[in-house]
Amino acid sequence: MGEEKQDHVDRILAQWRRERPDLDVEPMGILGRLKRLGTHLGREVETVLMKHGLSTSAFDVLATLRRSGAPYRLSPGELLEMTMVSSGTMTNRIDQLEKSGFVERILNREDRRSVLIALTEKGLATVEEAVGAHVANQHRLTRNLTTEDKAAFDRLLKKLLADFE
């Protein structure tokens, strides 16, 4: 195998090593690459979802409802738990999705003081199409990794993420 090509982060690390040789900047490389990768991947994901008329935040709500299983309904509190956003942010997302005809608020039969957020037919059709394209895009974005690379990368990311969750 040939020598690995230098990336933007390598140049930053070299500068820090030159200017502050007393600092161990190895974690800066890992975190810098994760941040840059997140930015690139976010743009790629957004491009595919926009083709279906969805922002990433709208897709997040619709996909959460879809993966909950039929009848594709959750309380606003359940949506909050599964998406990790603030209550105000979730209310705004639901309002926008309702205006677009993707979800509807329905009375909760088990607790008449509350509502459930349900996918409409339009919402279900849209998320079905979008999730297929999203998964295909994810495969495209990880195509240069072997099966073993993906397993190792996933294991390491899970290990790092565990400290925060």
Helices and strands in order, then pairings?
Elements: H1 8-19, H2 26-50, H3 56-67, E1 73-74, H4 76-83, H5 87-99, E2 103-107, E3 115-119, H6 121-141, H7 147-162
Antiparallel strand pairs: 1-3, 2-3
Helix pairs in contact: 1-2, 2-6, 3-6
**How is the main sheet built?**
3 strands, antiparallel
What is the fold named in CATH at topology level?
Answer: Arc Repressor Mutant, subunit A
Q: Helix/strand-derived class? A: mainly alpha
- pLDDT < 50 stretches: none
User: Using DSSP, what is the number of strands?
Assistant: 3
* CATH H-level superfamily: Winged helix-like DNA-binding domain superfamily/Winged helix DNA-binding domain
The helicity comes to: 55-70%
Order of helices and strands: HHHEHHEEHH
Count of the separate structural domains:
1
- How far is the N terminus from the C terminus? 38 Å
Question: What Rg do the Cα atoms give?
Answer: 21 Å
Structure report:
This protein has 7 helices and 3 strands. The protein has one domain (about 50-165): Winged helix-like DNA-binding domain superfamily/Winged helix DNA-binding domain (Arc Repressor Mutant, subunit A). It is mainly alpha-helical and about 160 residues long. It has helices spanning about 10-20, 25-50, 55-65, 75-85, 85-100, 120-140, 145-160; strands at about 75, 105, 115-120. Strand 2 (about 105) and strand 3 form a beta hairpin. The model has no long low-confidence stretch (mean pLDDT about 95).
